[in-house]
Design a protein that fits this description.
Number of domains: 2
Number of strands: 4
Order of helices and strands: HEEHHHHHEEHHH
Largest sheet: 2 strands, antiparallel
Number of helices: 9
Shape: elongated
Helix content: 55-70%
Distance between the termini: 123 Å
Structural class: mainly alpha
Length: 309
């Protein structure tokens, strides 16, 4: 390895003998920075100031790299936050779509059974009103056998008809997951109030008490199934009054389910007071159901659904 001044390595230069160090030799040669020649390359030996300059350049490079890394991290975090937000919005959209589907299925079932249930509830509350406020009860004790038979059988029928349509609606929605729909919950609350008033044995006396399972049994006996190519699943209809009377008189498997109700209706001929409490509560519950199903009073005017005082 030959040491020569940069820019003059092809010519030998004289050096003073007192030059004792490599740095002195380069200073005598008028060179600020010594180099080491290795083959055809001149390598500069850095002094302290240049090392400082290089250190500053390195620091700038490190800072630039750190800033670039921070930018990458921020971008990655932003992308992650965006992905989380998108997933959250997608989940909320799915939940809203599911809620809409549930509401649509409930509306489909309700559109099938709303009107018959509404009519049945109106008929039953109207009969109770006429018994307790009006004078219909006199037909129950009428000497005319035909009028008396009609008063008893038709009163049993309007009770059975309501229970049939309530059972049909229950069957229509039993396999639908509708527990979180407010409208469904409101309907369930009103139907449950009527079931409870029929079934309770703590608030009222014995007349017109029908336990819950017995209510469903009467509803089942009154229902007739049929199918429709345009409608999915099994559909239900309620037996009419004529068919009901025929079965009540001639069907030995059918009549016993209504025996206690028949006695309760016949006892109204003596006095309505033993049954007044339960029947009044039933009429109020039925009016609540009417107000829910016919909120605008389109089907039945409000003056035809007055509450018993």
């Amino acid at each position: 390895m030959e040491l020569t001044p940069p820019g003059s390595w092809q010519q030998a230069l004289p050096f003073k003998a007192e030059a004792t160090t490599l740095q002195d030799l380069w200073r005598q040669a008028g060179c600020r920075k010594p180099t080491v020649r290795i083959g055809a390359l001149d390598l500069w030996i850095l002094d302290r100031q240049e090392r400082k300059n290089v250190s500053a350049e390195v620091a700038v490079a490190v800072i630039s790299a750190a800033v670039a890394l921070l930018s990458i991290l921020i971008s990655a975090n932003t992308a992650r936050s965006t992905a989380v937000l998108q997933a959250r919005l997608q989940n909320e959209l799915e939940q809203r779509r599911e809620q809409a589907d549930k509401a649509l299925r409930l509306e489909q079932v309700m559109s099938r059974y709303r009107d018959p249930l509404l009519s049945a509830a109106f008929d039953l509350q109207s009969r109770i009103f006429n018994i307790l406020v009006g004078s219909f009860w006199v037909y129950i004790r009428d000497d005319d056998h035909e009028d008396q038979a009609y008063a008893v059988k038709s009163t049993i029928f309007v009770i059975a008809q309501y229970l049939a349509w309530a059972e049909a609606l229950r069957r229509g929605v039993q396999f639908l997951d509708l527990g979180d729909l407010k409208r469904n919950q409101d309907l369930v609350d009103r139907l449950e109030a009527i079931r409870s008033t029929f079934a309770t044995d703590s608030r009222f006396g014995r007349p017109f008490r029908i336990f819950r399972v017995h209510q469903r049994a009467i509803g089942e006996l009154m229902l007739e199934s049929f199918s429709d190519a345009n409608e999915p699943g099994m559909l239900w209809n309620c037996a009419g009054y004529a068919a009901f009377c025929t079965r009540l008189e001639h069907d030995e498997a059918f009549a016993p389910w209504f025996a206690q109700l028949e006695r309760d209706v016949q006892q109204l001929a003596g006095s309505v007071d033993p049954a007044r409490g339960r029947l009044t509560a039933l009429q109020h519950d039925l009016v609540d159901l009417l107000d829910f199903l016919d909120e605008s009073a389109v089907r039945f005017p409000r003056n035809m659904r007055s509450r018993i005082p």
